[in-house]
Amino acid sequence: MVKRFFTDLDRYYFHHGVHYELYDKMGAHVVEEDGVRGVHFVLWAPSARAVCIVSDGNGWTPWRDIMEKVDDCIWELFVPGMCEGVKYKYLIVRADGSEVMKADPYAYASELRPANASVVADLKKYEWGDKQWLDEKAKENFLEKPMAVYEVHLGSWKKDWDKWWEEDKFLDYRRLAHELCEYVKWMGYTHIEVMGICEYPFDGSWGYQVTGYFSPTARYGKPEDFMFFVDYMHKNGIGVILDWVPAHFPKDEFGLDWFDGTPLYEYADPLRAEYPQWGTKAFDLGKPEVSNFLIASAFFWVNVYHIDALRADAVAAMLYNSFGRSEWRPNKYGTDFNMESFEFFRHLNTVLRQRTSAFIIAEDSSIVSGITAPAKNDGLGFGLKWDMGWMNDTIRYYNEDPVFRRYKHHLMTGTFDYVFDENYILVLSHDEVVHGKGSMFNKMAGSHQDKFGALKTTYTMMMGHPGKKLLFMGQDFGQEAEWDYKDSLQWYLCDDPGHRDIMECYRKLLHLYTSRPVLYNDAGKKNVFEWINSGDYMRNLFSFIRRNPWNYNDALVFVINFAPVFRDPIEIGVPVSGDYVKIFSTYSDEEEYSLTAVKEECDGRPYRLVVKLRPYESLIFAVPYHESTEEEKEEERKTRRRIKKEHEDAISDNKHVPKIPAPGEVGASAEESPAAKKEGVKIAKAVRSRKSPVKKQ
User: Is the pTM of this model over 0.85?
Assistant: First the structure.
């Protein structure tokens, strides 16, 4: 029997969608076979009539390096003498007899656009230095740790103006590592989120129309350069989140579209095959091999590049068959839910949390509940969910003239009604500062001078709100222009006193956030937030307490003025006696002082403070320390035990890991699995009860 690189066991796992290290076998790999060094290629193209490899190693000559079809769908070839750095493509004779040149879906590296060949790469040479970071992260519950994320587009964060001869003037991964790390550390961010760097052909897609699911873009360097980037961040205490696109892919001829002459990676059903608004193809997650392709991609970035978390783009598009479509196909239960996507996310999130210390963040605007609940509790198992409701409601409030904000007061208070339903991350992302939406600075109502104070107070309210934090680059110093992927940020604005003040204010907030557990440890959920006064709509005022779940020790009192006028005096109720020390003001000239609580009922609390607020001023006070009672100590122990158990449950659940049938048995499809069937019946009942708008075809 001929020894195969892609073994029977590999094939078995692949066809059942559970080959989590598939990236080690599919694609091009530098190996040594029988003492001869070369590159072994493996390709999945079941309907192809013939396949050969064309490369600069064979002069791009067709049918010199012909692949062998070793079963009904897998093609293999070992090319002796081929080495790292060789550019190649697959020449495929498709099902209809036509020929097409395709890039490798599993390529480790790619040519710089507009060229689009795959490049042979050896990813095992880089020597990592972040073991301490990885070991510490493996012991942590990320919900109990601070997460202040700096979202960055590498190509437009800063330009290299010394490269006057280059149109793009991109900084490379290694220079970005040093300069970006220096900035985020100084500011006080804990993580960076890198906008799409999985290889993509069109700059205007910002990296969200991917052709290389295993390849960091060549715009900023080679694979080992991106490894250096992640490694350097980790050695400096900065986590790295990577944007990841499991929903769709572009129609470029060299990519996944109609790969072997059939709808291989996309749905065959024309009502499910595309997302018309994006002009892209939808992954067919009903095929185990396609699901496995994406799951292996997620594991690849975590295992090979040490990525700490993935941010899954467009989750809502995957959950609804009707998303962006005027005509759509209902599932067998008569609803518009894509049951295969539900099963896909349960599977992926479960195994990723089991096998690694990484997790996935859902960019999700759906009304599906349980996005961050464990799969065994009928959730989807994500680590965090973008709080799109908070983002939309608060931006609507900021846009309103202060005179009329009294009529929009509920937008700021309503978000607290559901804040603990999921594990949320508050986001002011790139999506909010493009396409005519204006920068965060220009979203603020009022005069140019008003915008400075309003933005600082906006960020103070954000930092006090439960949930992790994310801010897009440039907004932390009040960039005035909308983001443009072709241009550098307006760094010169940092020389302006007003914009510098915004930067210093946000920097203080970040350092306050990361140093005060009551601001980031929402894992306890119960009692970590309390309103003091949520109804002062006539004066645009908000006051609340951030605390731990068992007592008021280390708690903080926030008093926030969203009006461009003085508020003097303001009486607020506080929970305990003593001196309340002011630790933060949005006014940079404010000196530290303390206020003594008066024994007098106010806002339903036993003590009262009297404060003065200037226009758009926010104040934060530290609550006086009091010795914990025995009851409070016991409550603390119970809460910590509960948090620990919830964390263990989230990473130990194996209910939704597919059971692999024995050889010869027929495996159930994702839609027919017991979990999916149960979910479908439950959803169908719920939808029918609210008069479903399902369009049957």
Answer: yes
> How many other CB atoms are there within 10 angstroms of residue 645's CB atom?
10
Q: Identify the active-site residue in 340, 363, 522, 679.
A: 363
313 given a catalytic annotation:
yes
**C-alpha–C-alpha distance, residues 381 and 360, integer Å:** 9
Which residues, at least 6 apart from 85, have a Cβ–Cβ distance to it below 8 Å?
119, 120, 121
Q: How many degrees, rounded to 5, is the angle at CA 532 between CA 527 and CA 536? A: 140
* N- to C-terminal Cα separation, the chain: 50
- List the beta bridge partners of residue 136: none
Residue 210: name the closest of 258, 260, 244 by CA: 244
Dist CA 553 CA 531 (whole Å): 17
- pLDDT at 522 > cutoff 90: no
Q: What is the SS3 assignment for 640? A: helix
Q: How far apart are CA 37 and CA 683, in angstroms?
A: 55
Sequence-ordered list of residues with C-beta below 8 angstroms from that of 69, at least 6 positions apart, any chain:
48, 51, 75
Query: Hey, what amino acid is at 362?
Result: A
Burial class (CB in 10 A: 0-12, 13-18, 19+), 253: exposed
Positive or negative CA dihedral for 205, 207, 212, 216?
positive
* Residue of 10, 313, 476, 501 marked active site: 313
Residue-wise pLDDT for 359-413, tens only, equals 999 999 998 999 999 988 889 999 999 999 999 999 999 999 999 999 999 999 9
Whole-number percent of the chain with pLDDT over 90: 82
Distance CA 157, CA 633 (A): 47
Dihedral over alpha carbons 476, 481, 484, 488 (to 10 degrees): -60
Helices (H) and strands (E) in the chain, counts: 16, 32
Token readout for 221 is 């360097």
Average pLDDT over residues 201-226: 96
Q: In degrees rounded to 5, what are phi and psi of residue 367?
A: -105, 15
**475: which 2 tokens?**
């907004």
CA 240 – CA 173 distance, rounded (Å): 13
Beta carbons of 196 and 252 less than 8 angstroms apart: no
Domains located in the chain, CATH noted: 8-119 (2.60.40.10), 529-629 (2.60.40.1180)
- Going from the C-alpha of 194 to that of each of 122, 131, 147, 206, 313, the distances in angstroms are 23, 22, 15, 11, 12
- Per-residue DSSP letter, 416: G
Q: Which two tokens stand for residue 692?
A: 């479903």
Q: How far apart are CA 373 and CA 370, in angstroms?
A: 5
pLDDT digits (tens, 9 = 90+) for 244-296: 999 999 999 999 999 999 999 999 999 999 999 999 999 999 999 999 999 99
